[in-house]
Amino acid sequence: MSWRPGPSDRFYRTIVRTGELLRRLFGIRIIVTGAQHLPGTQTELPRPEASPGSAGSPGRVPRPAPSRRPVPGTGAVVAITHFGYLDFAAAELLLWWHNRAQMRFLITQGAADHWFAGPAVSAAGHVVVGYDSGAHAYDEAVRKLRAGEYIAILPEAGVSRSFRVRECRTGAVRMAAEAGVPLIPVSVWGAHRIMTRHHGFSPRRAWRAPVRVHVGEPFHPAPESDVAAATDALRAALQRGIDAGIADFPLQPGPGAWWMPAELGGSAPTEEERQRLDEAEGLRRARSRRR
């Protein structure tokens, strides 16, 4: 029996096409390097058989498939930087353009409980990480990876205020190792100018905004790998991608630009300040959960 997209796939396509429409409306430019490191090509897509034409005619050219077909053994973990609220969208569009991939994101329970985002999270088939334990979500993500799906994860587990890659959690490495799939680092620079923490969406900043996306060379962690060392290597690869994006970013920042790291003359918090702020926020959240 031939594979057919399900309801979640159709909803996902609607969301992606809406994002593409908004990108075109604002003239946002997504500039990509390292695309050769992405898995699969259009040849992976299921293609309907060409209808036979009349004698002597070549027949009709089949239309491309609506979405990538998950095939066991072709899954991947896609690790994305998290400097702003639209980084995931740039990576999502890139994979969609590449081979019509529908990434399943690891979503926090808080986002899934949101009155507006929650129904969309469920309808698109994303994986929800519960408040108490992420074990169920982890197992579900590994199952999807083995089935050939792409799982997208933001390993920093929060927006980086310093616009340097934060300490990463080990989940991305562990999932890739257990499922036997590659781990692909995707660094997004510039989307945070459009919308991030303490800087809401600005149509002026979004208008013709450049967004740099760099795809790093895939990792292939093994079950016996040193998870901590591999996670540090992932963080370093993500930062190299950010550095590459900054180096040829089309916009020249002014002195003290809020969207630039402090070490490059921007007014973002330093790494030391960022760590203090993160720790204070973590304590506040812990206290609020105990109430």
Structural descriptors:
291 residues; alpha/beta; Glycerol-3-phosphate (1)-acyltransferase; 9 helices; 7 strands
Strand-helix topology:
Layout: H1 7-26, E1 29-33, E2 76-80, H2 87-99, E3 104-108, H3 109-112, H4 117-123, E4 127-129, H5 135-146, E5 150-153, H6 171-179, E6 183-189, H7 203-206, E7 210-215, H8 227-247, H9 271-290
Parallel strand pairs: 1-7, 2-5, 2-6, 3-4, 3-5
Antiparallel strand pairs: 6-7
Helix pairs in contact: 5-6
Describe this structure in words.
The chain is of the alpha/beta class. It has a single domain (7-36, 67-252), classed as Glycerol-3-phosphate (1)-acyltransferase. It is built from nine helices and seven strands; from the N terminus they run αββαβααβαβαβαβαα. It has helices spanning 7-26, 87-99, 109-112, 117-123, 135-146, 171-179, 203-206, 227-247, 271-290; strands at 29-33, 76-80, 104-108, 127-129, 150-153, 183-189, 210-215. It has a seven-stranded mixed beta sheet, with helices on both faces. Helix 5 (135-146) packs across helix 6 (171-179). The radius of gyration is 20 Å and the shape is globular.
